[in-house]
Amino acid sequence: MSSITIKDLPDRLLERLRRRAQADKRSMNREAIHLLDLALAKQSVDPGVGGKIRDVENQIQAWRRLAGQWDSYLNTAAEIEQIYAARTLGRRVDS
After folding, report:
1. What would the DSSP string read from start to end of the chain?
2. Using 50, 70 and 90 to split pLDDT, how confident is the model at 22?
3. Domain shared by 37 and 54, yes or no
4. Considering just the CA atoms, what is the radius of gyration of the chain in Å?
5. In this structure, are 50 and 71 located in the same domain?
6. What is the dihedral of CA 67, 73, 79, 81, to 10 degrees?
7. Whole-prediction pTM value?
8. Residue 93 and residue 95: Cα distance in Å, rounded?
9. What is the pLDDT of the chain when averaged over all its residues?
């Protein structure tokens, strides 16, 4: 099997790994392999797509946290109309 060396491992991270290995009754090496395997298994085959999916999921979570916090004296239709009226056409693109 191959091996790697991790340089400049922060002391706090090493201690967390040590405690986790102890709790899981694994060696630190086995625990590090286990955690790497778990982290990498969560990624999609195409990191670009996986990153986009995570970005979308993070955006959805942010919207859910904001839901119901918008305070306005306007009704929904008037609020939407005001938002559309404030929009610009953007920059001109020559074709």
Report:
1. -------S--HHHHHHHHHHHHHTT--HHHHHHHHHHHHHHTS-SSHHHHHHHHHHHHHHHHHHHHTT----SS-HHHHHHHHHHH---------
2. very high
3. no
4. 24
5. yes
6. 180
7. 0.46
8. 6
9. 84
Q: Which residue has the tokens 């922060």?
A: 10
Residue 30 belongs to domain spanning:
9-42
Encoding tokens for residue 73?
């004296």
What Å distances lie between residue 5 and 14, 16, 29, 32, 80, CA to CA? 13, 18, 11, 12, 56
Q: Do 57 and 80 share a domain, yes or no?
A: yes
Q: Give residue 18's pLDDT.
A: 95
- The tokens of 35 are what? 């955690």
| Together in a domain, 20 and 36 | yes
Q: pLDDT tens, 30-69?
A: 999 999 988 888 765 555 666 677 788 888 888 888 887 7
